[in-house]
Design a protein that fits this description.
Two copies of one chain form a homodimer.
Chain A (H helix, E strand, L loop, with lengths): L1 E18 L9 H6 L7 E7 L5 H12 L4 E2 L4 E3 L4 H4 L1 H13 L7 E6 L1 H13 L5 E6 L2 H5 L9 E3 L2 E5 L7 E5 L8 H6 L1 H11 L1 H15 L3 H19 L17 H10 L6 H18 L5 H13 L20 H10 L5 E6 L2 E5 L4 H14 L1
Parallel strand pairs in A: 1-9, 2-3, 2-4, 2-5, 5-6, 6-9
Antiparallel strand pairs in A: 7-8, 10-11
Chain lengths: 376, 376
């Protein structure tokens, strides 16, 4: 058998910066990052409308003062939230801008917004000219500590979440704490659930810290939130850099609680936010872990208490698992189909440590749901 | 300045197999490749119509006998050639099949065809579920020794070649020499030009070998072509595995002769084949290298003679560079824009060794063109 063997490694590196007032004229961080670069390079901004149109004045003023890059005068505003990933016209608008403004692959596309906008822009950047440099400026708790600092992007297609997407590390990420001021109550809280998740799977000390600080987090204490974001981002980044950055295997520890969460978001037409759905998905899989004998009663009730203390609902009428036409159960197969290979679900054996299973028992799921309804 | 540093490497590996009669019932190679795999995995085939519909009978018979994978019964036929990359409906057809047949990312999409079909299918596979495993079965000289064994894919958009695409290594490549029997004269010859190119940039011994065997190649001697393909594939693969597999820099040695070639293909609506255009592009940049004092007269005439001996035209009316409204010169800026960064053109300083320049002189280009018209 004659063959040639190909083998090579590609190194990926990027920094996640933490700052306050990224486009304040007194803050040179953003400009300095590009300073050593060739100044003929362009930067094109796509901005989440939820951030407010005033940001375009700030960007213009900033690039009037700082000249490391050529600002493309058109700033593209797109809606925030899942809708921007559902309609391909926003994807097309970015491609058109790349073409019109001749953004080449040594130039930059920057996205300012929540996770959905970052996912959309990251995907458009990744496939234009086989990958234009992508700068992420996440504006929500969720995107600053989770989706925005990772390596995935995507849009929805055929009504399926992230049906189209790639693994494409950003060129750099800038987390600006001031953007968090613009968040409503639900978006503020929603992002905390991914921190609870990563603590549950990887770091019992961080879980205890969240327990201790739950009151301050719920009361929107800025310094407390800053620590939560940086520690959560760090745990996520360590995980990505670990065994399988581009997820070629079947194991997805960071998807704890996500099989039902993804489905619930879709069933509610994304009226339930991702973080809220993840909290309910974690509650379900926590009680399931307990009923299956993996997780102690004590740990189970600590987890449910924390979620409630943070202000999360523990379940939703559409999380109904007991009947033959349960829609949420379809989430199991869709989860498997999207990730590929064998169904692999992360459960908990204690706080800070997960255990993988390859099937879920419908009877136990039904009991878990009843436990949660009782707690609401 | 507070930041988190992300850093990881991703290893990519694949084999390029050489065989004869891939779907002959007596040839277990293809089945054996997947044998250790979980047999619930699916394989979906997309086939270039130019290969002939009979291949679907062969595939069906093969998977009746060999059971390592589940064959998706629908085999999708698409037109060959550039048209399949110009119309996004073919891209959509593949996505629809992925959705309908629930091809997950541990399953396989196989493409059988020339470079255009492989580029299209590779792109669709790369962005579906963030990357379904992709098997390439190239059927032309060009795709067996160049595009099909590399890491790029793409489709055309806004009338621009490969405007959309990614870097995504295949899972495996199977080169079947029997497919070459189906090629017409132009397709057979066309693929040889990329072998001349890689020899000119990297391997003077291989260039001499092509000179010695030019007659046999033009006469379609199978064994001679087999060696040309394997050596050319090997040089390409070594180059990819070298410094910059995903082309983050501006240097593109393998694009020798390609700035004008890409533009000529587009100007002739792809009536001039890629390999034919590359031969003309190499002739232009060879004479340009000579007139600029980089390349000796002796080497210059050896190169032009070889191209002619292989049956290539050396220039084309649309390669006209002398006037203010020369269309081919637009290719320089489009080439720069697609690759990004500074314009970087590979010229020759001797056979087997290139030299990079960052501008092209219009007067010298005009003289080079006149030299080639004189030789036609």
């Amino acid at each position: 058998m004659k063959y040639l063997q190909q083998s090579f490694s590609v190194k990926f590196e990027y920094k996640v910066y933490f700052t306050s007032g990224l486009f304040d004229l007194s803050n040179p961080l953003f400009n300095d990052f590009f300073k050593s670069d060739d100044s003929s390079k362009k930067i094109f901004f796509v901005v989440d409308e939820g951030v407010g149109r005033v940001v375009s004045d700030q960007i213009n003023a900033y690039f009037n003062l700082y000249k490391a890059l050529n600002l493309v005068p058109e700033i593209l505003f797109v809606p925030g939230g899942e809708q921007v990933k559902n309609d391909t016209k926003y994807f097309d608008q970015i491609l058109e801008a790349v073409n019109t403004h001749k953004i080449d692959r040594h130039s930059y596309i920057a996205a300012i917004g929540g996770g959905s906008v970052l996912d959309l822009v990251g995907y458009a950047a990744a496939v234009s000219h086989r990958g234009i440099r992508h700068i992420r400026i996440p504006t929500t708790v969720l995107s600053q500590n989770d989706s925005g600092i990772g390596v995935k992007n995507g849009i929805n297609y055929f009504g399926k979440k992230n049906f189209l997407g790639t693994f494409a590390p950003p060129f750099a990420v800038f987390n600006d704490e001031l953007f968090l001021n613009t968040l409503g109550e639900r978006d503020w809280r929603s992002g905390i659930s991914e921190a609870v998740k990563v603590a549950l799977i990887k770091d019992p000390v961080f879980f205890e810290w969240i327990e201790t600080n739950a009151g301050l987090l719920a009361a929107r204490d800025r310094e407390t939130m800053n620590y939560l974001i940086i520690r959560c981002a760090e745990l996520h980044m360590q995980h990505i850099a670990g065994k399988d950055p581009f997820e070629s295997g079947s194991s997805r520890p960071l998807d704890f609680g996500h099989w039902s969460a993804h489905k619930l978001e879709q069933l509610t037409d994304f009226k339930v936010l991702h973080g809220e759905a993840v909290a309910m998905g974690m509650a379900l899989d926590t009680v399931y872990s307990n009923l299956s004998g993996y997780l102690s009663d004590h740990d189970c009730s600590r987890i449910l208490s924390l979620l409630q203390q943070l202000g999360f609902e523990l379940t939703h009428p559409l999380m109904e698992t007991g009947s033959d036409n349960s829609k949420i159960l379809l989430g199991l197969e869709e989860f498997r189909e999207h990730l590929g290979g064998e169904l692999t679900i992360m459960l908990l054996e204690k706080i800070g440590s997960g255990i993988e299973v390859h099937k879920m028992d419908a009877e136990i799921l039904k009991k878990a749901e009843l436990v949660l309804i009782g707690k609401q």
